[in-house]
Design brief:
- This protein has 336 residues and is an alpha+beta fold.
- Helix content is 33%, strand content 22%.
- The protein has nine helices and eleven strands.
- The strands form two sheets. The protein has an eight-stranded mixed sheet with strand order 1-5-6-11-10-9-8-7, sandwiched between helices. It has a three-stranded antiparallel sheet with strand order 2-4-3, with no helix packed on it.
- β9 and β10 form a beta hairpin.
- α1 packs antiparallel against α3.
- The longest helix is centred in the middle third of the chain and has 25 residues.
- One of its GO terms (biological process) is L-asparagine biosynthetic process.
Length: 336
């Protein structure tokens, strides 16, 4: 069920044309900064993949991918990607990237089962990035160093936008705080996962919540993760406090990717060992793919954040129910 809340007194300070110009400024500046921080090169990426390739992101395992038949393949089905988490790792090998080098790309997806609200849409646009590391670098220290680099790109971009638009004040703290999902459960045992994220984000301004995917001491998961790309002990989300909506806003999800051992153990824990026979997973188990770290960064999310918008529809074109359009329009909010 779609939901929307426009804060009392909210007024968009850029009209549609000025907003479109600002969106391009945000995207152009941030992707250059990200590429510099992580030594990345831009590549082209697929919009759809074959189901039997094992390349699509299964997310929480219940989301339905959008499918369509391909005439030249006898109407065999292809799937719109949910993300490029696995495709990027294969591309690094195919394209001849070397140790310490990486790629980034524009990823567009359709998540038909998404419940839309101020920060969620059925259309997903993000920068997917991936970088080759040595197996010995599959450590917490490496993960935190990479997170700090991504966060620096986010922080520098905020300063750039604040210099261009006088109404924008900088929210992000100088440093990001690291905390595990288990530490959050221990600290807030009576809260839901989303309530924990809100509490810690409001306290610190910007946090990286680590170790997402496995079960906590309570038996619950902090959040879902597919078992065949992130190492659940070496991953996490960048979450910031967003005063415009008084929420915790996830800007990025990333992690050190599974090696042969963690792939098998996580597939077993998730009850989907059958995936081990798919082409991508077999290549990984046969030591044919590089060890990597990677993630995704929401393009519309960061545009919304930097331009201080109340709804993601102000910075991306999607489909919204009629009542949402009418509610927004009545409050002077233009959905693209």
């Amino acid at each position: 069920m779609s939901k929307i809340v426009i804060p009392e007194g909210y007024q968009p300070l850029l009209d549609i044309k000025a907003t479109e110009i600002a969106i391009k400024r945000v995207k152009d500046f941030f992707q250059r900064e990200l590429a510099t921080q992580l030594n990345l090169r831009r590549v082209s990426a697929p919009l759809f993949v074959l189901p039997e390739s094992g390349l699509n992101d299964n997310l929480n395992g219940v989301e339905r991918p959008v499918k369509f038949g391909i005439m030249e393949r006898g109407d065999a089905e292809a799937e719109i990607v949910h993300s490029l988490a696995k495709w990027k790792r294969l591309a690094l090998k195919r394209y001849g990237f070397q140790m310490g080098e990486g790629l980034y790309t524009d990823m567009n997806a359709i998540r038909r089962d998404e419940e839309t609200d101020n920060i969620h849409s059925i259309f997903v646009d993000q920068w997917d990035w991936e970088k080759i590391i040595d197996k010995s670098d599959r450590t917490l220290e490496t993960l935190q160093d990479v997170v700090k680099s991504v966060y620096e790109a986010l922080r520098v971009t905020e300063k750039y936008i604040a210099n261009r638009y006088s109404y924008v004040e900088c929210f992000l703290p100088e440093e990001i705080t690291f905390v595990t999902s288990q530490e959050l459960e221990d600290r807030y045992p009576d809260c839901t996962a989303k309530e924990r994220e809100y509490n810690v984000a409001k306290e610190y301004g910007a946090v990286f919540i680590m170790q997402i995917g496995g079960r906590l001491k309570s038996g619950e998961k902090h959040d879902g993760r597919a078992p065949d790309y992130d190492d659940w002990k070496l991953n996490g989300d960048i979450i910031v406090y967003y005063p415009v909506l008084d929420i915790a806003l996830e800007l990025s999800s990333m992690g050190i990717r599974v090696d042969e051992e963690t792939l098998l153990s996580q597939l077993e824990e998730a009850g989907c060992m059958d995936r081990a026979g798919l082409p991508f997973q077999k290549a990984l188990l046969n030591h044919e793919l590089p060890y990597t770290v990677g993630g995704g960064i929401g393009q519309s999310r960061i545009c919304m954040f930097y331009l201080r918008k109340a709804h993601i529809g102000e910075v991306q074109s999607s489909i919204w129910p009629d009542d949402i359009w009418e509610y927004a329009k009545a409050r002077g909010v233009n959905l693209l």
